[in-house]
Amino acid sequence: MLTKKGKYGLKALVHLAQLPVGQLAFVNDIATGNNIPKKFLDAILGELRNAGFVQSRKGKEGGYRLARPADEIKVGHVVRVLDGPLAPIPCASRTQYQRCEDCNEATCQVRHVMLEVRQAIAEVLDQRSLAEMRDIAGDDDLSVALKIQA
Amino acid sequence: MTGRATSSIIIVGGGASGVVLAAHLLKSPNPDLRVTLIEKRPHFGQGIAYSTLLSAHVLNVSAAGMSAYADDPGNFSRWLLERGLVTPEQAPVYAPRSLYARYLKELLDDLEAREQQTGRLRLIREESLSISPTASGVEVALANGTSVVAHLAALATGHDEEPGAGQGHAIRMGSEADTALAEDSRVLVLGTGLSMVDAFLSLEQRGHRGEIVAVSRRGLLPSPHRKGNPIKLDVADIPLGTQLSYFVGWFRDLIRENQKAGIDWRDVVDGLRPFNQKIWQNWPSSAKRRFVEHTKAWWDIHRHRMAPEVYAGVTEAVQSGRIRLVAGRVVDITPGGGFSVQVQSRHTQQLETFDVARIYDCTGIARDISTTSNSVVRSLVDRGLARPDPLRLGLDVTANCEVIASDGTVSAKILAVGPLTRGTFFEIDAIPDIRVQCARLSKQLLG
Fold first, then answer.
1. How far apart are CA B80 and CA B412, in angstroms?
2. Fold exhibited by the domain B8-160+367-446
3. Given B45, B67, B309, B320, which residue has the most CB atoms within 10 angstroms?
4. Which CATH class is domain A4-149?
5. ipTM surpasses 0.90
């Protein structure tokens, strides 16, 4: 499941991916621009920095920027760091397995299918880069609007 | 590669990776397939890895992992059983490497016999000099002045035969320079890994009894295998594309948690194996560089292990003082009779001098590809048809094994498999990984 943390983290990274390469963004601007609580965003950006996706600079002129080109960072990379193993339900994880109170994992058909689902999730998210995510932002509505204008 | 004929393929190098690739290609029913395997040594299927005749030189991977076929993991184990070379109770089996060479030879003999009518397989015992792209494919020039042509060429030249540059007076064990030694002479070995262990076993066999000083940056000895069951992981569990420190932290935690549950660290290390290439390929180049510089030595001793019996012999030799492990670096070598080798300790920075009769290069298989002694690879690099990968571990190739030229163009005609592709495929020195790579490449070329 994608948590709010994962969602906010991705939004913040797309925000950074929209800036010219190397330009820093203020945490406040990212927060207000994407409707993310500032304190929460601080914590998320800290984790993204530890994993090597963003760099920060302290001080008055400080802020955050991507540590690597946006086409190298895959969505799946980010989600694993913020939300842990990709899993549609808590029992469908090998490393952070959480047993369900009400079923037997050895015979649970639901879990079996969900283990397959997580492979599919990984396949999609590990193909998609931040750059692609940025470029589909604005998506169909915008491109339709542009066409009408033209 | 669509739209171009890819059914005739020259494999340059008939060692283990060349034979494994040929075997996978010939699984295709395509009647137009033509596989030409070129090897300069008198025997196919041996290469450097499996040419040793010493029975103490056993495989570092158990028989269950050594099948030549990716889709038939039991192939080698069955071969051993059918010939009565092992009993079913013996497991895991670490077979002598010479037996593995025989396995590959018989496998190739069978293929040759089977394809005699079809003409799909041709073996050439000759040294290859160069590969040149032509309008319709490639031309491989041979040392006897002739050449062969095909649609594609696949480099399977394996490990380098000569010691790396800068190893000075060091020689390779078993090379021509490796003449008889006085029984009690002291020797120095550069490296403390699996190659050093092989050298120790060779010296034992020859009746050498002198001290063996083994020097490497950290002086670490590889760990022994133990029977176990690799833990199960999915790619969805593994952090990809992070900085190295983040990944190492995750992996250490994973080992710790599993150890708490009574699981051996080996099972965690081995559980990661199916994903090692993916992890490597997703890392930023800074993480790859850091790994090679700082983490690889630790990784290698846990990941590339030896048979338990071999380990027992080596540790005994270390305890008895026959092998002395030194963590440090060689700062000076002065020849004169033998060699006077000055080593600076990693921990105390103090200098110590060892007077030795010989220096063996066992620094392992990785070296800068631009200094390769292989003429085919050298000529490709010299002409700009190939280039070293960014970390200079091998040739720069795509994830589809296509060789990348110095200007960045991807060759549709020149491919590479095995250790040459280390920069892209990371761990591609051992059969379990090479066979998977060859199976994929065959599918890519022949469908």
1. 39
2. FAD/NAD(P)-binding domain (3.50.50)
3. B45
4. mainly alpha
5. no
